[in-house]
Amino acid sequence: MSSRELVVLGTASQVPTRHRNHNGYLLRWDGQGLLFDPGEGTQRQMLRAGVAAHDLNRLCVTHFHGDHSLGLAGVIQRINLDRVPHAITAHYPRSGKRFFDRLRYATAYRETVPITEVPVDGEGAVLAATPAYTLDARKLSHPVESYGYRLVEPDGRRMLPERLAAHGVSGPDIGRLQREGGLGGVSLDDVSELRRGQRFAFIMDTRLCDGVYALADGVDMLVIESTFLNEDIELAVDHGHLTAGQAASVAHDCGVRHLVLTHFSQRYTEPDEFERQARAAGFEGELSVAHDLMRVALPKRR
Fold it and tell me: In angstroms, rounded to a whole number, what is the distance separating the alpha carbons of residues 162 and 9?
């Protein structure tokens, strides 16, 4: 199993259907788990997908419409019931704190796990900076305040065996060179090249706006709503959503490597049309039209 993958728990917008649960997306990132937009039924979908409460480290809510947040109550209570042995951090729009509090304390239960709240407001902010990634948020355009999330791995170095051999560097000296940046007149630049960190973006309910492009810029995987097909673009604009063509155009313009379309209106029963319209918009990279319980590995590093 990939150590970096997206587990899709639900893909329906507004209401669940017979074949699609409310939203829910788990990003596995080297032993860390970021759960995005847990809608109603997420706890059961986690069970079906083999995802445990122990797998969660962060809860990231884009906005407080029910299909993106009603599952918080059950997920938080399960975290406490299972006595998850590490702290959990929750991110959400600060303007929706009253909703978060209501969901967190929707019913009586025993709190056993600390949950640190780090809300976001304004145009967005860096929410976490860890050795493994930086997580930031950008404001989107929706009838209620909404934010998208972007995760960026720090750039690293890729050691080049042929250059190491040419400079006579081998064995433990390779590690010393990496730690110290130079060894016996050989610099790290002489024997390695920059390895670009992986990047991931999560964009839900929004119209096209600057935040969409800032989040999607150069990411390896973009998970983005495509609630409507192109012929219903007026509905998309009126209700603060994207069409499949708009989402794909963003991915094309921003150099996205793997596009994951999701959050589909119940009015559509033919998922292949989302892929056709995305390709017609010019996107030529990897493309997934999400379905419940799908697993999608992040693309390998460049």
Answer: 44
Q: Could you tell me which of 100, 112, 98 has the C-alpha nearest to residue 71?
A: 100
pLDDT on residue 1: 42
Residues 204 and 225 sit within 8 Å (Cβ to Cβ): yes
From the list 37, 67, 136, 205, the catalytic residue is 67
Query: pLDDT, tens digit, for every residue of 88-101?
Result: 999 999 999 999 99
DSSP structure class, residue 230: G
Strand partners, 134: 129, 152
Spatial contact of 40 and 22, defined as CB atoms under 8 Å apart: yes
CA angle 211/289/286 to nearest 5° reads 75
Within 10 angstroms of residue 281's Cβ, the number of other Cβ atoms is: 19
Q: Would residue 30 show up in a list of annotated catalytic residues for this protein? A: no
Distance CA 213, CA 211 (A): 6
Strand pairing report for 24-29 and 186-187: unpaired
H or E, element range at 297 = strand 295-297
